[in-house]
Amino acid sequence: MTFVGSRFGEREEELVDLDQEEIITQAGRCLMQTYGRLPLALVRGEGAYVWDAAGRRYLDFVSGLAVNGLGHCHPRVVEAIRAQAGVLMHCSNLYHIEPQVRLAGLLIENSALDRVFFCNSGAEAVETAIKLARKWAKKRHGPERYEIITALQSFHGRTLAAIAATGQPKYQQGFEPLPPGFSYVPFNDLDALRAAVGEHTCAVMLEPVQGEGGVNVAAPDYLPGVRALCDELGLLLILDEVQTGIGRTGRFFAHEHYGITPDIMSLAKSLGAGFPIGAALAREDVAAAFTPGDHASTFGGNPLACAAATAAVETILESGFLDQVTRTAGHFRRRLEELRARFPMIKEVRGLGMLIGAELNRDAAKAVQGRCQESGLLINAIGDRILRFLPPLTVTTAEVDAAVDILTTALAQESEG
Ligand SMILES: *Cc1c(COP(=O)(O)O)cnc(C)c1O
């Protein structure tokens, strides 16, 4: 096997000089093949645009899977990272640091929850929520209360506990035995949830909008119904807002649309506007179940991550920002409904804010996505039939229109066969 550069040679210099084909070839040789990657190597991003290694520009309506909420390289986030990197990059959670306190304060002030645990990813935030719920339930109700009910078609991440929590067998197969203590119910079916509660149940965990599962939005009365059920039966409500949180749906948290609050909430994806960071938030009395030594993360809430996230959160919470997101998302939604009226292959358009899906009536999602990519628009295909659109929250109406134009051509070509 040949590898770029020698072990002690000018590997770094050569790596930045690779052309697109070479990057893709090397990836095939040296990376574990866990992803079905598209044949595209990206090298630079700015706002709603990214450039590939061949110099072509794309409108990015994937946003790093809802991570680049402020678009690529938002100046305020870049500056916060630069400034913090030259001061203190890491010091471990043996010590106190101001960036963590500032970010936690912001999250608490703007949610109904009281305490924060910082980590590095969505799965880790979910893992924290699971551990906290179990610890709380054992203290509160006894050792036999550990089961968490989640939804079919849910997605909670790829660690063993997170795939056990995920109600989709395709993520679990081949990794058994999975940690026990999870059961699954159909989403948006309150009766099924009530029927599933048993003597071991301690919590219910849901996404307000199932993102990876196909952009399935919780019905208006579902989450309030789940909240009431949890209160009635002494269960915790965990909301996994890893994808829906931090402005994605036009509110700071998606649960605000439903007029309810969770007991525990997981966050990640756009929290750091591109810098990896996750968080689990909880109500005071729930958070109190954790005592020193119960949970930890070496990198969790590192100064650099917290500085980036603070800049991101402050930007999103600026007056008018989320109203603008809602307006532009409404425009995008109307344009997509126009396409549905024009192209019978679009069966349904659904979503909340800037988390939008279009379900097709045939297996054309990958073909449409490929055609869009060829014409300079990145979108995401979930399975064979769902197109997912995750533009940056900062996307303009003109950029939405440009994307819709490309999509229109792709759909017309695909409809003609
Ligand atoms: C993406 C996602 C996760 C997993 O996040 P990672 O950072 O990939 O671990 C968990 N829950 C939801 C709802 C997600 O969308």
From TrEMBL:
<dbReference type="InterPro" id="IPR004636">
    <property type="entry name" value="AcOrn/SuccOrn_fam"/>
</dbReference>
<dbReference type="GO" id="GO:0005737">
    <property type="term" value="C:cytoplasm"/>
</dbReference>
<keyword id="KW-0055">Arginine biosynthesis</keyword>
<feature type="binding site">
    <location>
        <begin position="122"/>
        <end position="123"/>
    </location>
    <ligand>
        <name>pyridoxal 5'-phosphate</name>
    </ligand>
</feature>
<dbReference type="InterPro" id="IPR050103">
    <property type="entry name" value="Class-III_PLP-dep_AT"/>
</dbReference>
<feature type="binding site">
    <location>
        <position position="155"/>
    </location>
    <ligand>
        <name>pyridoxal 5'-phosphate</name>
    </ligand>
</feature>
<comment type="subunit">
    <text>Homodimer.</text>
</comment>
<dbReference type="GO" id="GO:0030170">
    <property type="term" value="F:pyridoxal phosphate binding"/>
</dbReference>
<dbReference type="GO" id="GO:0042802">
    <property type="term" value="F:identical protein binding"/>
</dbReference>
<dbReference type="InterPro" id="IPR015422">
    <property type="entry name" value="PyrdxlP-dep_Trfase_small"/>
</dbReference>
<feature type="binding site">
    <location>
        <begin position="240"/>
        <end position="243"/>
    </location>
    <ligand>
        <name>pyridoxal 5'-phosphate</name>
    </ligand>
</feature>
<dbReference type="InterPro" id="IPR015424">
    <property type="entry name" value="PyrdxlP-dep_Trfase"/>
</dbReference>
<dbReference type="InterPro" id="IPR049704">
    <property type="entry name" value="Aminotrans_3_PPA_site"/>
</dbReference>
<dbReference type="InterPro" id="IPR015421">
    <property type="entry name" value="PyrdxlP-dep_Trfase_major"/>
</dbReference>
<dbReference type="InterPro" id="IPR005814">
    <property type="entry name" value="Aminotrans_3"/>
</dbReference>
<feature type="binding site">
    <location>
        <position position="297"/>
    </location>
    <ligand>
        <name>N(2)-acetyl-L-ornithine</name>
    </ligand>
</feature>
<keyword id="KW-0963">Cytoplasm</keyword>
<comment type="similarity">
    <text>Belongs to the class-III pyridoxal-phosphate-dependent aminotransferase family. ArgD subfamily.</text>
</comment>
<dbReference type="Pfam" id="PF00202">
    <property type="entry name" value="Aminotran_3"/>
</dbReference>
<protein>
    <recommendedName>
        <fullName>Acetylornithine aminotransferase</fullName>
        <ecNumber>2.6.1.11</ecNumber>
    </recommendedName>
</protein>
<keyword id="KW-0663">Pyridoxal phosphate</keyword>
<feature type="binding site">
    <location>
        <position position="158"/>
    </location>
    <ligand>
        <name>N(2)-acetyl-L-ornithine</name>
    </ligand>
</feature>
<feature type="modified residue" description="N6-(pyridoxal phosphate)lysine">
    <location>
        <position position="269"/>
    </location>
</feature>
<keyword id="KW-0028">Amino-acid biosynthesis</keyword>
<keyword id="KW-0808">Transferase</keyword>
<feature type="binding site">
    <location>
        <position position="298"/>
    </location>
    <ligand>
        <name>pyridoxal 5'-phosphate</name>
    </ligand>
</feature>
<comment type="pathway">
    <text>Amino-acid biosynthesis; L-arginine biosynthesis; N(2)-acetyl-L-ornithine from L-glutamate: step 4/4.</text>
</comment>
<dbReference type="GO" id="GO:0006526">
    <property type="term" value="P:L-arginine biosynthetic process"/>
</dbReference>
<dbReference type="GO" id="GO:0003992">
    <property type="term" value="F:N2-acetyl-L-ornithine:2-oxoglutarate 5-aminotransferase activity"/>
</dbReference>
<keyword id="KW-0032">Aminotransferase</keyword>
